[in-house]
Design a protein that fits this description.
8 strands, 3'-5' exonuclease activity, HRDC_dom_sf, alpha/beta, 3 domains, DNA polymerase, domain 1, six-stranded mixed beta sheet, Nucleotidyltransferase, domain 5, two-stranded parallel ribbon, Ribonuclease D, HRDC_dom, nucleic acid binding, about 425 residues
Length: about 425
C-alpha cells in the first residue's frame, strides 16, 4: 500500500481552518505512536433538539461545500428496534452538527439539501436503515469501512482505520452505551463529534490508496450498489434465529420457541426495551426443550428463577400451553422453504458433482482474493458462488458464466475478475 499518512497529514492541516490546528486536538503522527484525538476542532457543538435549531443546521449544511460526513448512534441492546438516537454530520463550511432525532424526528429537509452531496459513512449498511427512517437517504456515498476492505487493510473498524491511515487514536469507549439516555453526557457527545471529525480526511486518503491499487472503480461500483439498494424486506420467521435454536429439533418444541419469541417481542416493543432484557434466548430454548406442564416446572428452569414474578411466569407458561395445544397441522415446519441451493454440507450426498464444483470454485476464488489483497467475500459473495455451482451454465463458457454472475447481482468489476477463475474451476471438474 502507498503511504497515505503523509498526504492525510497535509489534508488535515489544509482543512482545519487555514492554519495548523492545536497539537492536542488534531496533531498528526507521520511515524511512531498515534496521537490521541482529544477534542473536536471547533469544540463540542450544542445538541440540536428543536425545529428552530434544526432549521439553522439545514441552512448551514445547504451552504456547505463538498462531501458530508454522516454517522448515527443507536441504542442496541437497550431499546427495541434500531432507531437512531443521535445523528452526527460534518461538512466543510458548516462544521459539525449533533442532532437529537427524539426532539427532531423528521430530518427530511436536511436529507433533501444534502441530496446531491456525497455522503461519507463508515459501515454504511449499518446506519442507512435508521437514517432512512428519519428521512435521510443519500444518492451517492463513500463507505470508508468497505474501502478499507477493498484496499486490503486487516482491521477496518473506524478507530483502527483512523490510526493506521491518519496516525490518530480515537477514544472508542462509548460505542456501546445507551444512546437513548437524556441528557447525553458530555464525554459521549465529544466521542460522537470525533467520529465524524476525520471521515473526510480518511475518505480522501482511502480514495488515493484505492486509485494507486487500481481498485477505485471497483469501490465506486460497490458504493453505488449500496446507495441504490432498496430497504431490506422483513425477515421471514425471525424466531428461527433464536440463539441455541440448533438444539430444538421437534416441531412441538419449535412451536414453543415461536410462541415465546412472539410474546417477548410484543412485550419488548410495548416497553421499548431490547427483547433480551425481557427474556433471554437461552431461557426460551430451555422452556422449549423441557415443555413444562405448569408454572412450578417452568420456574425450575434456568432463566425463570427469582427475578420472574408470578404474573410473568404465568404469561410465559401461557405461551408454552398454547404451543402444546396446537394441532399437528399448525406446528412449524422443520425448516424454512429453501429457494436457493441447499446447505453446502448436504451437497456431497445430494449432488457429488456440484460438491466438486463448489470445492474447486471456492479454492479458485480464495486464491484470486489473496492475489488481489482483499477478502474473498468482497471479491464475490459466497452465495453467488454457491448458486452458480449448484446450477451451472450448460456450457461453462466465459460469456455464460459472466451472465450467470451478473444475474445473481455481481457487479461488473466482480464479473470481470471472477469469470476466468470460475470458468477454469468448472471446466476442470467437468473434464475430471
Amino acid at each position: 500500500m502507498t503511504d497515505a499518512r503523509e498526504t492525510a497529514a497535509e489534508t488535515v492541516l489544509r482543512t482545519a481552518g487555514g492554519g495548523p490546528p492545536d497539537d492536542a486536538a488534531a496533531g498528526v503522527a507521520v511515524g511512531g505512536a498515534p496521537i490521541p484525538l482529544l477534542e473536536p476542532r471547533e469544540g463540542i457543538p450544542p445538541v440540536v433538539a428543536d425545529e428552530h435549531a434544526l432549521a439553522e443546521v439545514v441552512a448551514a449544511f445547504a451552504a456547505g461545500r463538498g462531501p458530508v460526513a454522516v454517522d448515527a448512534e443507536r441504542a442496541s441492546g437497550y431499546r427495541y428496534g434500531q432507531r437512531a438516537y443521535l445523528v452526527q454530520l460534518r461538512r466543510e463550511g458548516a462544521g459539525t452538527a449533533l442532532i437529537d432525532p427524539v426532539g427532531c424526528p423528521d430530518l427530511t429537509a436536511l436529507g433533501e439539501v444534502l441530496g446531491d452531496a456525497e455522503w461519507i459513512l463508515h459501515a454504511a449498511t449499518q446506519d442507512l436503515p435508521c437514517l432512512r427512517d428519519i428521512g435521510m437517504v443519500p444518492t451517492t456515498l463513500f463507505d470508508t469501512e468497505l474501502a478499507g476492505r477493498l484496499a486490503g487493510f486487516p482491521r477496518v473498524g473506524l478507530g483502527a482505520m483512523v490510526e493506521s491511515v491518519l496516525g490518530y487514536a480515537l477514544e472508542k469507549g462509548h460505542s456501546a452505551v445507551d444512546w437513548s439516555t437524556r441528557p447525553l453526557p458530555e464525554p459521549w457527545l465529544r466521542y460522537a463529534a470525533l467520529d465524524v471529525e476525520l471521515l473526510r480526511d480518511l475518505r480522501d486518503a482511502l480514495e488515493e490508496e484505492l486509485d494507486g491499487q487500481g481498485k477505485l472503480e471497483w469501490a465506486r461500483q460497490e458504493f453505488a450498489a449500496i446507495a441504490a439498494a432498496p430497504p431490506a424486506p422483513p425477515r421471514k420467521d425471525p424466531w428461527r434465529r433464536t440463539s441455541g435454536m440448533h438444539r430444538v429439533r421437534r416441531r412441538r418444541q419449535m412451536a414453543v420457541v415461536r410462541e415465546m419469541w412472539t410474546l417477548r417481542d410484543r412485550i419488548a416493543q410495548r416497553r421499548d426495551v431490547s427483547p433480551g432484557k425481557v427474556l433471554g434466548d437461552a431461557a426460551i430454548v430451555e422452556a422449549a426443550l423441557a415443555l413444562p406442564v405448569d408454572v412450578a416446572a417452568l420456574s425450575a428452569l434456568n432463566g425463570f428463577g427469582q427475578r420472574q414474578g408470578r404474573r410473568q411466569l404465568e404469561q410465559w407458561q401461557g405461551a408454552v400451553d398454547r404451543a402444546r395445544a396446537l394441532p399437528e397441522d399448525r406446528l412449524p415446519a422443520q425448516g424454512q422453504v429453501v429457494t436457493g441451493p441447499p446447505p453446502p454440507r448436504a451437497w456431497a450426498d445430494k449432488d457429488p458433482a456440484a460438491a466438486a464444483r463448489l470445492s474447486a470454485a471456492r479454492a479458485a476464488v480464495t486464491a484470486l482474493a489473496e492475489a488481489l489483497n482483499l477478502p474473498p467475500e468482497n471479491l464475490i459473495t459466497p452465495d453467488t458462488v454457491r448458486r452458480v455451482c449448484w446450477e451451472p451454465p450448460a456450457e461453462p463458457t466465459a460469456d455464460a458464466v459472466a451472465a450467470a454472475l451478473a444475474g445473481h447481482g455481481a457487479r461488473p468489476w466482480q464479473v470481470e475478475q471472477v469469470t476466468p477463475v470460475l470458468v477454469g474451476a468448472l471446466t476442470a471438474v467437468e473434464k475430471s
